[in-house]
């Protein structure tokens, strides 16, 4: 146990807090407040002290390893070698009742929230948690603890690089739980404020004054600071582009910062006291995906600023704007390193031990191409229907459907590689929203085409994303919302969709069957009979009622167009945002 020491002013503005350790399997049943003697905390007349619980040391190691192996690739803001030392240092201080930085606790608790959310059957089976369900059910508990620690850190005006790292991880896991909600946006704004307080926006500016936080930063910490800062910039620019509530407004601007892009360097090459040796971009590292994501965010910001300067910021993008952006995205794809490209044929000829064929690089390749083709699919989606009858929009239709097929094909491709990341991918918001968008594109195309003349119009292709959303129904809070929304979108047009009807029939048959039980998940592709009831109910009832969720979402659009009028008048951002499904 460790009790946080505070100044007399802090004792007025912030309630006291203590940190304790217990077995992770019983952590949720531990009291949130601990009764202390009144004399323990001067100036306080209350006995109940807020308590933050952490797992045992060996459990924290296993949880951290899960995060570093499967999740960190989405936002590699951690320096792995020094992080392992941080864990040992925190626990040594906790066990000796010595002071611990609040930011470090925030980092560990946020990591617990993220790792337990994505915990799968392959993660330390039967040792850390008794079951996958137990681990997954703890995630919100850790989110609450992280929010409590963050609130306390703000009240005592204590910030650190570890605190910002913890807030970024917390933002990611909240997005997985509830999309880019107000809570998630508040967390990322707090992270930006804390990073600015640390002057991370001036890392490569003029020489800092002696009292500046930068003056005490080593070259290693500055490099990690660049990763942190540019991740925050990336999220700010993406939110400005995709979030209708911000309407092109961003907090961070390139001309108001002096921060170089992160170096393409491996964590093991970042050593305290030594010069940072950058690798060529053609060589994969743990930050390859982050660097490409930053490049994509710069392109997104160019789109946002260009649209704002046009004087039509409140209007949807025109067909001309979309084609120009499409060209920029194609140039971006052409500049991707071979090891991250789907079109590279040289990877298969490399030996299995080559770093370019490592599971980490494969997962980075999956994530990058997923967001690229999701963006292409979404961008051209408004002109999909018109493209079937008007040659002027045929290109948009082709690109939309091709990218939708790539999104679905990526799932099959990387499942074949048996990546650990793929086991829990349907619990990741980014993956689910991409599959959802692909399902809408393929389904709408099947509806406007009376004859299945295109390969993507086949039953199996059109039903594929439905099956993936069905698998995610019980795995993710977003899975059920997205499945119901996609069905309601089709019902809104009063369309008979063969793949959907087939899926409904299969689910009814599964409900009626009483023989056998198969676990649901990416490994089996089968569904437990016990899990079919809520899915089948959603599939069946979706066509009979008009949920308030869908009606509210639809009213956010300008008008209620019919399918044969084309989809270009639908504001897809506002439609999906209103349904708690932003494309971020």
Automatic annotation (TrEMBL):
UniProt keyword list: Nucleus
Locations listed in the record: Nucleus
Gene Ontology MF terms: DNA binding; zinc ion binding
Residue ranges of the region described as Disordered: 511-530
One GO process term, biological-process aspect: DNA-templated transcription
Domain Xylanolytic transcriptional activator regulatory: 76-318
Pfam family, one: Fungal_trans
Domain of life per record: Eukaryota
Signal peptide stretch: none
Primary site of residence: nucleus
InterPro entries (alphabetical): Sec_Metabolite_Reg (IPR050613), XnlR_reg_dom (IPR007219)
Gene Ontology cellular component annotations, sorted alphabetically: nucleus
Protein name stated in the entry: Putative transcriptional regulatory protein
């Amino acid at each position: 146990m460790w009790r946080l020491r505070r100044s007399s002013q802090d004792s007025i503005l912030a309630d006291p807090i203590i940190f304790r350790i217990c077995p992770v399997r019983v952590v949720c049943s531990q009291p949130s407040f601990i009764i202390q003697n009144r004399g323990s905390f001067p100036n306080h007349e209350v006995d109940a002290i807020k308590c933050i619980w952490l797992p045992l040391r060996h459990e924290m190691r296993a949880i951290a390893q899960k995060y570093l192996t499967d999740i960190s690739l989405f936002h590699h803001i951690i320096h792995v070698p020094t992080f392992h030392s941080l864990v040992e240092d925190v626990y040594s201080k906790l066990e000796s009742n010595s002071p611990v930085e609040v930011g470090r606790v925030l980092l560990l608790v946020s990591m617990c929230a993220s790792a337990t959310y994505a915990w799968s059957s392959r993660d330390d089976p039967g040792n850390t948690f008794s079951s996958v369900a137990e681990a997954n059910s703890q995630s919100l508990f850790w989110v609450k603890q992280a929010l409590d620690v963050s609130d306390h850190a703000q009240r005592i005006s204590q910030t650190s690089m570890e605190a910002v790292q913890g807030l970024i991880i917390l933002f990611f896991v909240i997005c997985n739980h509830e999309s880019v909600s107000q809570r998630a946006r508040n967390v990322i704004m707090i992270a930006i404020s804390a990073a600015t307080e640390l002057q991370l926006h001036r890392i490569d500016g003029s020489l800092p004054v002696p009292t500046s936080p930068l003056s005490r930063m080593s070259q290693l910490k500055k490099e990690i600071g660049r990763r942190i800062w540019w991740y925050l910039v990336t999220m700010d620019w993406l939110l400005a582009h995709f979030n209708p509530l911000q309407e092109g407004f961003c907090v961070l601007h390139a001309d108001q910062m002096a921060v170089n892009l992160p170096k393409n360097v491996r964590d093991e090459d970042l050593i305290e006291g030594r010069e940072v040796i950058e690798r060529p971009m053609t060589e994969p590292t743990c930050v390859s995906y982050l660097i490409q994501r930053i490049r994509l965010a710069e392109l997104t910001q160019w789109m946002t600023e260009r649209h704002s300067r046009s004087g039509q910021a409140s209007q949807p993008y025109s067909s001309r704007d979309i084609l120009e952006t499409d060209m920029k995205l194609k140039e971006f794809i052409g500049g991707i390193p071979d090891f991250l490209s789907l079109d590279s044929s040289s990877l298969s000829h490399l030996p299995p031990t080559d770093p370019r064929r490592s599971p980490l690089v494969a997962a980075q390749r999956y994530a990058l191409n997923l967001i690229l083709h999701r963006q292409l699919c979404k961008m051209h989606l408004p002109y999909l229907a018109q493209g079937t009858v008007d040659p002027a929009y045929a290109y948009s239709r082709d690109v939309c459907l091709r990218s939708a097929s790539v999104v679905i094909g990526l799932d099959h491709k990387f499942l074949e590689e048996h990546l650990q990341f793929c086991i829990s991918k349907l619990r990741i918001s980014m993956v689910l929203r991409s599959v959802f968008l692909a399902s809408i594109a393929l389904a709408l195309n099947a509806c406007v085409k009376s004859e299945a003349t295109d390969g993507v119009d086949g039953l199996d292709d059109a039903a594929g994303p439905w099956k993936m959303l069905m698998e995610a129904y019980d795995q993710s809070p977003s899975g059920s919302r997205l499945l119901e929304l996609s069905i309601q979108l089709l019902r809104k047009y009063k369309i008979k969709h063969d793949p959907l009807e087939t899926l409904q029939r299969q689910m009814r048959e599964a409900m009626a069957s009483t023989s056998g039980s198969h676990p649901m998940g990416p490994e089996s592709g089968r569904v437990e009979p016990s899990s079919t009831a809520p899915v089948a109910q959603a599939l069946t009832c979706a066509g009979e009622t008009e949920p308030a969720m869908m009606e509210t979402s639809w009213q956010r659009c300008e008008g209620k167009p019919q399918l044969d009028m084309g989809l270009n008048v639908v504001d897809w951002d506002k439609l999906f945002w209103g349904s708690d499904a932003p494309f971020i």
